[in-house]
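In line with agreed milestones, the collection of sequences with tokenised folds has grown. One record among many is set out beneath this paragraph:
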Amino acid sequence: MIMDRLARAFDDRLRLSPLTRRALAKVFPDHWSFMLGEIALYSFVALILTGVYLTLFFDPSSADRVYHGSYEPLDGSTTSAAYASTVRLSWDVRAGLLIRQTHHWAALIFVAAILVHLIRIFFTGAFRKPRELNWLVGITMLTLALANGFTGYSMPDDLLSGLGLRIIVSVVESIPLVGSWLVALGLGGEFPSEEMIPRMFVTHVLLVPAVLVALVSVHLAMIVRQKHSQFPAPGRTEHNVVGSRLYPSYTLRSLALFLWILAVLFGLGGLVQINPVWLYGPFAPAQSTSPAQPDWYVAWGDGALRLFPPWEIHIGGHLVPAPFFPGVVLGGVTFLALYAWPFLERWCTGDRSPHQLLDRPRDHPVRMGVGVTALTFFGVLVVAAGDDILARLLRVPVYDLLNLLRVLVLVLPLLAGALAFLLARALRRGDAARLGELTRADLRAARRPAGGADTRAEQDEPEVPAPDRAGERIELWSEGDVWRWRYRDEAASVAILSNRVVLTEQEAAESARLAYPGVDHVTVPGPPPSPPPGRVRTMVRRWGNAALGASLLLAAIRQRRSRRRDDGGDGPRPR
């Protein structure tokens, strides 16, 4: 009763009920891949909750401290305050080790969920108009997540994280002219400085999380405004969303997913050891540890540094050290390409239409090939980050393995990308519903240039008229300012005309592809106009239209009367 009165009081003053009803009625698609973004969101929530607890006990200082605690090998040792508080948090604070390891696992899953979510968006074309801004926001969140993960990894001031921080400092210093200045600006002096841990702490717990919260809010607001994209299926068009309403069905599923994520994260934090800093020891500039591998999301940078040859060049009298190319150039080109991809694909394909329906990966073989090439390239770099461990497990010299990986990083991505391109073309042109159903004939046909709509989609060339081509096909033609299509199978003497009229050729092709997937599309001049009807047919058609209009009017009147009876009369309803 009290809560009801409070709700009414707030609603009388703020008028929130219309907005609430509209928000709760929002429809979400039921496909499982749309949960990837929610996994990232809930992992971020877990990061905030566990991070608040950790800040109560962590001492972000480089000052000397004498550790006294339950971990006997370090008892009485002089370390930095950051390292001593991290060991004390792990051994002497109740639930400290559980929360610290859960925080670390949440960071790993947070970055992984963002990355897999972006991969899904890339291969399904969800970044196209009108969602280019959402793609840019997602790439920015990925960049900030990588940076925040690395600062959190480096703050404990243990030997392993200190070695990784030293590598990053060397990469930044390799930038000609401004590298040393950027390091001094970021760390407050030469590495290692007294200010680096406090500055990383402020960046990790205040600056980057605040920006991430703002970007997540903007991301969700744009989703609400633009509505969700969805995969093609019967009943789904460019103008609707088919799925479950936000309340109650989708809310219950999302809440269950949140609880599952918390359960998994705390299960990993309590059962799976990660980053045992007490075993690594405190950071000392003159020491290093081997084998030393960073977290997986920055391992590609470490692998690039290991594989790139020690080439140094001089430009304008300035030395460009070897770490500049694999560390700065590769990372810069990668993220620049990610930011520019929606606009680059739009420029190459000429597709400027808004899209609410997603693509199957097979529908765009070029995009498929480029994506698989990039993923394979960075996958080899991640493997190269553990070349010393692999050499020990395989019992081969590490330099032999290094030379092999140098060859693989150049050859394997090209082979994987070409294979993905051919398989996508074969699936697009053939009758196979999945990869295991492909035949040799499909693969041979995929290596030949295609005609019709396949040529336009894969090679960005316009369709050419092909009215005399025999066999099963979809025919597209224009009628003035509109486009129509029909399905034709000359062997079976079947011709089915679509009753949907669209404004562009692309919309007609997408409508036909949804109804008849895998059938080639060709542009034809169009069927000849039908002869004018006779006088009898004209009279029958007019009488039929008049009868149909009268029946619709009577049905509307009956429906209006029944609604009035349900409301209790014809007068205004009492408030």
